[in-house]
Amino acid sequence: MPLEGYPFSKLPTWPDAEVRVLASPALGANFAQFLIDLPAGGRGQFPADERIETFCYVVSGKGEHREGTRAKRQIVAGSFSLTPPRVANEFCASEPMRLMIFQKRYQPSPGIPLFSALHGNEHEVVAEPWAETDKIKLQTLVPDDLQFDMAMNIFTFTPGFGLPIVETHVMEHGLLFLQGKGVYQLGDEWMEVQKDDFIWMGPFCPQSFYATGEQPAKYIYYKDVNREIGL
Ligand code: UGY
Ligand code: MN
Question: What are phi and psi of 122, to 5 degrees?
Answer without folding.
Answer: -55, -30
